[in-house]
Amino acid sequence: MMRKMIIRPLAVGLLTLALLPSCNKFLDIQSKGTLLEDVQFSTIRGYEDAMYGVYGSMAEQGLYGGVLTAGFLENISQTIGNVNSVSMNYHVNRYRYTNPQVRDQIDAIWSAQYQVISYVNNILANAQKSALSGHVLQLARGEAYGLRAFLHFDVARIFAADYRRAKAAGTLKTTRGIPYSYDFNLQNKHLYNLEDTYKNILADLDQAEALLSGDETIRGGDLTVATYETNRIVHFNKYAVYATKARVYNAMGETAKAIEYAQKVIAHSVDFGLADRSAFANVTRFPADRELVFGLYAPKFLDWISTTYLSTGGAGNVDQGRLLRALNELYTPLGGGASIDNRQVAYFRQIDSYTQFIRLLPDRDLLRSIATSSKGIMLIRLPEMYYILAEASYPTDPAAAVEALNKIRDSRGLAPLTTANFSNQAAFDKELMREYIRETPGEGLSFHAIKHFFLAFPSLTGESVTPTEEMFTLPWPQLELTYGNH
């Protein structure tokens, strides 16, 4: 069976000593924690367990096991919501970030993300001074560098300004980035400007790419019995590094690099490939046959999905998808024709005038029959690489861009488009943003796409919403603003 971490690294958040009741008490705990670490990191098995602990922490409901995938971020992007005014998500759908419940949720995301980063830093710090060696340790180090970049990048996408807009304004060096954490301690982390934040992310990804250069056994076998060196789909593998680089370069507007790294993933046909339209049902949820690049093994995730989205109740009493007419408009194929988008009926079911989100779990009773190895979270999938390739290609080769988009459309049951369907980049970007919204509900990517393209998007009830920086750059925790970087 997949091993769980025996001794979890001591949890250290980003905020200051002012948050602790006693500095002396912390130092006593820290000294005991150091002794435990000496035992844990004395063997390769200890590093494996520590990495499994990191992945387990990421899979918790407060991060990618809920809030950052099928929860809070989807509420902001109006993919899923609630029309009951007592619900926190009702306030999120209306961007009331000062509401106490919403404020607490935002602060918790920040704290939890940096807490996991501290675990990663602890692994890297111990690996740096370790006398151990070997392939598994190299893999663990590569994954750790990659995850540190991945986690910081998501903090930046949620809590910092958009890179391209800051670059266009000539303010990259003066725009606030995020604290980049390299240590496992209580010291304040240095706050970098936006340009240097992205440089730090890419530097960690470069380290990961070098360490994972020989990482090729990506798929195969039961996830629950895989060794550390096989079935790497639930580890931050080499192709997850490539995909994250494609994400980062695309966010920066570095089109040539975005194309290069997206194509590295797409070209690896041994492990990855888009589903045939007749087999679309095989890729709607984890482990998304041949479309998943990186995900998390998470046995509790579908239980949360069941409770959150498949509870009984009338309209407005449970979280729901868009109003039916709004959903129909979203999934009406561009260019018309007789083709039908297979995603709409696979992702949503009509409940009264609203729709129920069923993509990740269509039936509560199904939970009993789903194998443990099929319970997990999708964090990077192949379709996104085609979207990045399409967006980055359009300025110099519109035909190649439309061809990349058509690969997804064909897989999802839609007729192909031509360059005649798009008058300019803005028209193409609008369709790409809508494609992210149609393709990725339950993954949290709609938030990032809307912030990236910054175009009007459909609300839960069908109205057009104009995004603002305040809506898609979440407020920092007040304690971080007060004590951070001092």
UniProtKB/TrEMBL annotation:
The keyword Signal applies. Residues 56-249 form the SusD-like N-terminal domain. It is found in: Cell outer membrane. Residues 371-444 form the RagB/SusD domain. It comes from the Bacteria. Keywords: Cell outer membrane, Membrane, Signal. GO terms for cellular component: cell outer membrane. Its main location: membrane. InterPro entries: SusD-like_N, SusD_RagB_dom, TPR-like_helical_dom_sf. Pfam families: SusD-like_3 (PF14322), SusD_RagB (PF07980). Residues 1-24 form the signal peptide. Belongs to the SusD family. This is Starch-binding protein, SusD-like family. The lineage of its organism: Bacteria, Pseudomonadati, Bacteroidota, Bacteroidia, Bacteroidales.
